[in-house]
Amino acid sequence: MSVDRHTVWPFVDGEPGQYSYVREAHPTGAEAERKLGELEGGRALLFSSGMAAATSILLALMQPGQTVALAEGGYFGMEILMRDVLGPWGLKTLLFDQTGPPPDEADLVWVEAPSNPFLTMPDLAAAAAHPAKVVVDSTVSTPVFLNPLAEGADLVLHSATKYLTGHSDAMAGAVVCKDEADYDRLFHFRHVAGPICSADTAALVTRGLKTLRVRVERQSATAAELAERLRAHPAVQTVRYPGFGGLLSFDVAGDPIPVETATRLIKNATSLGGVDSSMESRHRWEGDRCPVGLLRLSVGLEDAGELWADLEQALPSA
After folding, report:
1. Would residue 124 be called left, alpha or beta, if left means φ above 0 and alpha means ψ between -120 and 50 degrees?
2. Residue 1: its pLDDT value, please?
3. What is the C-alpha to C-alpha distance for residues 266 and 270, in angstroms, rounded to an integer?
4. Domain segments of the chain as ranges
5. Which terminus of the chain has a smaller tally of CB atoms within 10 A, N or C?
């Protein structure tokens, strides 16, 4: 895989060419953006992380005093970003149940498909019917299982660190735009503020996109099997799984730490979307909004039977 690590490119006849300085754009990133844009049906931009991509959307497209309707039960860091970091700058955040319509007063609708770690799916038709622009965080669905732009969304967000790269070895974010004006504003913001994805990381995004479908389809099949088995286990109280994808969560009674530390094949680690399965208690990070016994399981590419055997031997400790 060719990686162009230049930070500057010579002018052409005294004028900047397609590429001139790396903070604006670079060939390796442009190739990854082209491939992701083809998958999503829009124009893609890569960022240094998923949160950098999310921050760029808010700062480039919103103004002080405007309101974001944010899906409740989604990635907890998004609420912290909007409320605690950008709130003092004048951004207003209103939580809502994404299985129903967004509140009328929203200037931007932000949903997560599915939510992490509660795995609810948004009512995309209701969101698209709202006059505000709609952002869909499709990190868990990936372009394999959902095409938000075709469902009426205006922007698609990915923490590319997860399934798009898929190997837990690169941090990146992505936004895919339906509207050319949104793309231009985000491109300009990225150029000025600088949260661009490096060439080496962009190359890893391209690598991940080549195997995306086979990885997530395998992860989805395994996750569906594990969800069914977990529902039948006496130590499991609740299982959350939207019917597709490699992410699920389940509740055990009491302290979940003995369960997450008893697995041998499944890594006790944070994050999700990699080829290696991982599991963790989310209450440690999210506090009271998350049930004490909730464990989030990101299913990798291991054998389904071996993963179940690992869970089964760990669960009696619940």
Report:
1. alpha
2. 66
3. 12
4. 27-211, 213-317
5. N
